[in-house]
């Protein structure tokens, strides 16, 4: 077994046993056994000084005889088991804890040196050094801090926070019995050192304090011993912690593993951290005489003919050769400085950019940053950044995915970036660091102890983040930030009640004021008309759909600006924002759109309402009895005959489409079914010819079936144009086809065709005849439509869903491919049929 194991066997041997010294213990166990060593004497002394087992046989015997054995108390043993098995979920944090303790020791000696000039006389350096020894399965962590006396070794390491142990254990038991997380426990028990037993079978602490001799403390987690170090003062001042690692923890001896852990957890520690590491260098070495003679013997005889002067010059030159050699030396790990500790005015922009790229691993420059110190209930320093591009998968597992972009430090020691509540969900793209000297930690340093302090930090971080975003230049904000993170701001309006007003000022939307520029709500309010008291918005799948909606016709004609909501989250966002700057929002697809009217306009509207009362009553009580809540004259329509309007608390067509498209929608949700089944209000345009004609027919004969069919067609067409879905699309198609037949004087019942004969030749002949008949019918229809269009019976306008669906159904009714080509010609011939007059044309055809 290795020399380290010999030492522990010797220490565990009974006092009466003799130690076989000859051939088993070398005179100098402290010398390095590395395959390749540097020749630098200083580095060699550093290496030898860190060895634990540089002891001769007599010193080992003295350790065995004079060491003071101590047993941990029963509750301390229980505590050790909890630490090793329960508290620390991640074993790798042992190195973070030991480095943190070393940093505290260095802080203490530095403060002491301010009042005592001799405190650092034995060693001026303030460093932390880590060395792995694979051969002996040991890991050494050495600091030049204040060190510990024998009494402090027994008190600090031999008892685990003696005054609070019982209280800690009682609280631990209570929380575990209630199923609560033990991560809430106060971190004042000083047990971070014992995380070493997560990876080590034995821990040896060698320490030298200015006021005492050097001592060795050793423990296997069951008992510990303390003894004067027989080697004398090898440290000068400070502490070396040596871990004899468990077999399964051997990975922590690898240099890359050690370097990665140091950079992950401790790269911003105030004191330099070095790792004993190797590197390959090309060096020149003198050629030995024997080798030189052998080389000369192999040379060609031409060398003997060289001139004597040249030979003399060669003799004066040193005989060397270039060789690659492995060199061991101390490598600095934490060369990145915590710039957040410096005043913001002293940090250059280039430094912020370089720091951001280093810690975030982002190749792009940040879009914005803020550097501040927060004071009050908790004091902390922070730097926050807005990235230029949104991280990939930003909304994947939104709300359940933990945010790892904010890194929490306590006294420059990395604690965690595994957060659910450091920043709200909608700010999950913000990157940065938070460093506090005030935060108490739980016993394992893995979560915060007092959540109320975390809430204070969160509140300040959100405020500072919103201030940072607000200060982004307008051009950059619209072109870059809003494009990448606009949805996050909208989600913030929905989720963050306390900051809703601040977030509302960051919103941007397309509006009717400009085809290209986005507008803020502040800009919209500034452009509002004199007596306008509401902010108008229209939701749709695209800007084109929103601005062509019948709901915005009169608003645009009168010069009102309308906000276009084109993303699914937009309508949710506005619903969560009841008002802005004292102005309430009005969905123009819902009830409540009114205009400031003069007395004359109001009197005219009342006259029209009285005139059209027979029609509105007939629509509500008879023609559309089970389909609408009521029928009223519209103030918002100018070109369309009618529109379907939701109540103030109902779903607009856009919202209904979004809700029905939800992947989790099962049709069993009571509230969803309630909103979906609500009846709408049918608003009719009294100036439209179709509505006027319908009023005339109702006044003539309220039982007119054609008027009823026309009313249903108008209702269903309005349903589609208002963004809603039809409950029965087949019935709608059948109704359109029936009206088409009536308009073309075609029998409502299709002619029965004779059974086709079984013979193939006859079948082919019949198909040809049928095809000719179909072509003849289509040709006559084309001629008829073209003639009527030339006569001015069709008014130019916009193609409506009714028109499209009508010809689509007729198109599909044609059975032969050649006939379809004629139908396409028919469709092209009537593409100018007006939206306002198509139904009227059908009605006129039927009447004629």
TrEMBL record:
Keywords: ATP-binding, Chaperone, Endoplasmic reticulum, Glycoprotein, Membrane, Nucleotide-binding, Sarcoplasmic reticulum, Signal, Transmembrane, Transmembrane helix
GO cellular component, one term: sarcoplasmic reticulum lumen
Primary localization class, coarse: endoplasmic reticulum
Single Gene Ontology MF annotation: ATP hydrolysis activity
Residue positions binding ATP: 97, 101, 143, 148, 156, 162-164, 188-193, 239, 445
CDD domains: HATPase_Hsp90-like (cd16927)
Transmembrane annotation, as ranges: 794-812
Domain Histidine kinase/HSP90-like ATPase: 90-249
Protein name per UniProt: Endoplasmin
InterPro entries from the UniProt entry: HATPase_C_sf (IPR036890), HATPase_dom (IPR003594), Heat_shock_protein_90_CS (IPR019805), HSP90_C (IPR037196), Hsp90_fam (IPR001404), Hsp90_N (IPR020575), Ribosomal_Su5_D2-typ_SF (IPR020568)
Catalysed reaction equations from the record: ATP + H2O = ADP + phosphate + H(+)
Region named Disordered: 19-43, 285-320, 746-775
Compositionally skewed regions (Acidic residues) per UniProt: 285-314
Pfam families, sorted: HATPase_c_3, HSP90
HAMAP family linked to this entry: HSP90
Upper classification of the organism: Eukaryota, Metazoa, Chordata, Craniata, Vertebrata
Superkingdom, taxonomy of origin: Eukaryota
Subcellular localization(s) per the UniProt record: Endoplasmic reticulum lumen; Sarcoplasmic reticulum lumen
UniProt KW Transmembrane helix keyword: yes
Extent of Basic and acidic residues compositional bias: 28-43
Organism: Amphiprion ocellaris (Clown anemonefish)
Family: Belongs to the heat shock protein 90 family.
């Amino acid at each position: 077994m290795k020399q380290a194991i010999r030492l522990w066997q010797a220490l565990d041997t009974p006092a009466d046993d003799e130690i076989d010294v000859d051939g088993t213990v070398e005179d100098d166990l402290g010398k390095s056994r590395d395959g390749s060593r540097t020749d630098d004497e200083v580095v060699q002394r550093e290496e030898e000084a860190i060895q634990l087992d540089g002891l001769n046989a007599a010193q080992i015997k003295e350790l065995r005889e004079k060491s003071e054995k101590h047993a941990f108390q029963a509750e301390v043993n229980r505590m050790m088991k909890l630490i090793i098995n329960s508290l620390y979920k991640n074993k790798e944090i042992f190195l973070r804890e030991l480095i943190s303790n070393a940093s505290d020791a260095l802080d203490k000696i530095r403060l002491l040196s301010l009042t005592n000039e001799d405190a650092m006389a034995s060693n001026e350096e303030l460093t932390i050094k880590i060395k792995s020894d694979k051969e002996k399965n040991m890991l050494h962590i050495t600091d030049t801090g204040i060190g510990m006396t024998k009494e402090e070794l027994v008190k600090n390491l031999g008892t685990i926070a003696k005054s609070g142990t019982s209280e800690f254990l009682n609280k631990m038991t209570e929380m575990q019995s209630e199923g609560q997380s033990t991560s809430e426990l106060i971190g004042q028990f000083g047990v971070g050192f014992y995380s070493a037993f997560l990876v080590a079978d034995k821990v040896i602490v060698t320490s030298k304090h200015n006021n005492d001799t050097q001592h060795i403390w050793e423990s296997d987690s069951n008992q510990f011993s303390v003894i004067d170090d027989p080697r004398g003062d090898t440290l000068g001042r400070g502490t070396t912690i040596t871990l004899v690692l468990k077999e399964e923890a051997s990975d922590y001896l690898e240099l890359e593993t050690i370097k990665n852990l140091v950079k992950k957890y401790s790269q911003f520690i105030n004191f330099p951290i070095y790792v004993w590491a190797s590197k390959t260098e090309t060096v020149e070495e003198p050629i030995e005489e024997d080798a030189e003679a052998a080389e000369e013997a192999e040379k060609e005889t031409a060398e003997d003919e060289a001139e004597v002067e040249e030979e003399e010059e060669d003799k004066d030159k040193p005989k060397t050769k270039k060789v690659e050699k492995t060199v061991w030396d101390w490598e600095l790990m934490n060369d990145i400085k915590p710039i957040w500790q410096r005043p913001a005015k002293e940090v250059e922009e280039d430094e912020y950019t370089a720091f951001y790229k280093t810690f975030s691993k982002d190749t792009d420059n940040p879009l914005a940053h803020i550097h501040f110190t927060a004071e009050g209930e908790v004091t902390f320093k922070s730097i926050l950044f807005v990235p230029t591009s949104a991280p990939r998968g930003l909304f994947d597992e939104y709300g359940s995915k933990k945010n790892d972009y904010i890194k929490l430090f306590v006294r420059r020691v990395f604690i965690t970036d595994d957060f659910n509540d450091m920043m709200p969900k909608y700010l999950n793209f913000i990157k940065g660091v938070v460093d506090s000297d005030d935060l108490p930690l739980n016993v394992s340093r893995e979560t915060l102890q007092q959540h109320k302090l975390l809430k204070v930090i969160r509140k300040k971080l959100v405020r500072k983040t919103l201030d940072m975003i607000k200060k982004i230049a307008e051009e950059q904000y619209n072109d870059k930030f809003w494009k990448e993170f606009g949805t996050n701001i909208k989600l913030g309006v929905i989720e963050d009640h306390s900051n809703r007003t601040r977030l509302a000022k960051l919103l941007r939307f397309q509006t009717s004021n400009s085809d290209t520029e986005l507008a803020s709500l502040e800009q919209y309010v500034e452009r509002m008309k004199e007596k306008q008291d509401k902010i108008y918005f229209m939701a749709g799948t695209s800007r084109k759909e929103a601005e062509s909606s019948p709901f915005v016709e009169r608003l645009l004609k009168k010069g009102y600006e309308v906000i276009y909501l084109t993303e699914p989250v937009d309508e949710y966002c506005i619903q969560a924002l009841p008002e802005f700057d004292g102005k309430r929002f009005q969905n123009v697809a819902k009830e409540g759109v009114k205009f400031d009217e003069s007395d004359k306009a109001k009197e005219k509207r009342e006259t029209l309402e009285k005139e059209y009362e027979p029609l509105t009553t007939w629509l509500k009580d008879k023609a559309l009895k089970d389909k609408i809540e009521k029928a009223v004259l519209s103030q918002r329509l100018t070109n369309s005959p009618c529109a379907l309007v939701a109540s103030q608390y109902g779903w607009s067509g856009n919202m209904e489409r979004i809700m029905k498209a939800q992947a989790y929608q099962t049709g069993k949700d009571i509230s969803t079914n309630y909103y979906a089944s609500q009846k709408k209000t049918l608003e009719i345009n009294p100036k439209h010819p179709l509505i006027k004609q319908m009023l005339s027919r109702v006044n003539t004969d309220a039982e007119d079936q054609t008027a009823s069919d026309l009313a249903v067609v108008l209702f269903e067409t309005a349903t589609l144009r208002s963004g809603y879905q039809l409950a029965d699309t087949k019935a709608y198609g059948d109704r359109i086809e029936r009206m088409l037949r009536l308009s073309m004087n075609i029998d409502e019942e299709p002619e029965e065709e004779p059974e086709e004969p079984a013979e193939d030749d006859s079948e082919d002949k019949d198909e040809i005849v049928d095809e000719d008949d179909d072509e003849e019918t289509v040709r006559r229809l084309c001629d008829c439509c073209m003639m009527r269009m030339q006569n001015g019976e069709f008014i130019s306008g916009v193609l409506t869903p009714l028109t499209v669906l009508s010809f689509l159904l007729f198109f599909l009714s044609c059975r032969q491919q050649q006939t379809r080509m004629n139908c396409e010609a028919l469709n092209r011939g009537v593409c100018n049929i007006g939206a306002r007059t198509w139904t009227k044309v059908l009605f006129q055809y039927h009447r004629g």
